[in-house]
Write a structure and sequence with these properties.
This protein is of the alpha+beta class. The protein is built from 3 helices and 7 strands. It has a domain of about 120 residues: Glutaredoxin (3-Layer(aba) Sandwich), CATH 3.40.30. About 25% of the residues lie in helices and about 20% in strands. Strand 6 and strand 7 form a beta hairpin. The N terminus is likely disordered.
Length: about 170
Amino acid sequence: MALAALVILPPVSAGFELGSTLPRPDQIRGGLVQPKKLALPPVGLGDDTRVVVFFYSASWCAPCKQIGAALRQTYTEFRERAPGLEMVTYAIDESPRARADYLREEAYPWPALGPSVIDRDPWLTEISGGTPQFQAFAVEANQLRAITVAGKAAAVMDAALSHLVSTVPRSQ
């Protein structure tokens, strides 16, 4: 008689685990850049930024480029409506050079993780399930803390906006 066992595995999670922390990228040399067509100058997070949403993407990902184009068209309005929320591109191309080329080519109006930072601990991560995906992080004094797992834009953005609203300082 053969025994059969049913093993239920948790869903594969992409990105960083819920609650995990990362150093603030704008406090690391080359950690946060503003893509331009010919350069990747360093940039900081705005003083009002309380939530960062990583946009996991890659140069070879056609859906990433479609979503990036849609985000580019709505980014200014999005920032006006939710000034405490910032988007950051996390390009997963194989090499720092490929990531840099992709960031310069797309030149999204929001910042990106520096191309070489992603090769360093603790920034290394697997993006199970492919791209595009999104993940939200709370901005704390010297770090980012994952407040969602990586997933689809709608669910992550809803959670990011909820966190943003829940952390609005109350006037007295």
